[in-house]
């Protein structure tokens, strides 16, 4: 018993402390408890982040499992050119586009541009070229009937009217002479002019006598020449009917011919089937160009351009051409911030427009096939002719380039449209589309 008491006394003596020492011990314990709470809070946050990360990885694995597996060189199904039309673009890999054009006299129904998606399916609708009904606008004036033809129309005019659109009157001019004696009439009949001896723009009149009166008339396109009733001279339709009820006789130039007229077009155009309009000759499709193999032939109104598409060259970024009109950025080093801020891709497009094209109108659309971020931003960058254009949104993933004012040709303008992809307002990718407009010197 004495030993136990001695031991208890010794233990009690060991834990006896001064007020100052006990205060320091309590502060240390409080600090340890606070550190323990902070560690527990960080541990809970870390565990929550891990659970969230595991959940996202699981969702990605599930979505990947649902996606059909495909080899690295898989491509979208081949698209055929529409009947009476053409297809531009041969690359069928995801992210690439094909474009469709219709032959003159036909209009496109469906999607003008289709893009190969990651699911190896094409965006948009199948393109079909249907014949334009030129008679729908009632081009035949003065009661003429219209017959639709491929890339044109034909008018059957009523009596007294002529021309491609029945716009020119064809009056018969009469000259009447009274109290003509038989001897005078005989003399007049004897003094006829052989047709072979007259100029092309001069013809003899056709005269007949009715009850002692002589009536003279001319063929369509001719008129009695002054007081001489025996001569018919050509009517210059280009001068007389320059601005008729149906507008100008010719869209470009009018050439007077004996008894009529014909329309002519500038170099690079040909006269349409209506006889008055001008149709552009596609030198690229008909191989009437001298573009070398390393250059792209771009048809313009009245001519063509040989364009060489080159990828951007900068110090910190390299690009590779993935199609004749598209360059994509090579992977960037991890620590190269200048490279990561450079455009992911640069696309080149070329368009031909007529002079003084009416505005406002949409000329081009830029769209994202798939989005990684949560927002897209569109902008027109500083370039020559910037004042003529603006950008507007048509939907969440599409921006439209808007022509604000007409452009007087001939001219060529380049516009750069930037599409930026954002994630929580942070830039994660830039895509540049460069569009070159070739403006004709004519309004057709």
Automatic annotation (TrEMBL):
InterPro entries noted in UniProt: cEGF, EGF, EGF-like_Ca-bd_dom, EGF-type_Asp/Asn_hydroxyl_site, EGF_Ca-bd_CS, Fibulin_C, Nephronectin_domain, Sushi/SCR/CCP_sf
CDD domains referenced in this protein's UniProt entry, alphabetically: CCP, EGF_CA
Residues of the EGF-like domain: 131-167
Compartment list: Secreted, Extracellular space, Extracellular matrix
Highest taxon, organism lineage: Eukaryota
SMART domains according to UniProt: CCP, EGF, EGF_CA
Swiss-Prot/TrEMBL keywords: Calcium, Disulfide bond, EGF-like domain, Extracellular matrix, Glycoprotein, Repeat, Secreted, Signal, Sushi
Recorded family membership: Belongs to the fibulin family.
Family annotation (PANTHER family): PA14 DOMAIN-CONTAINING PROTEIN, UROMODULIN-LIKE
Protein's name in the database: Fibulin-7-like
Organism: Hemibagrus guttatus
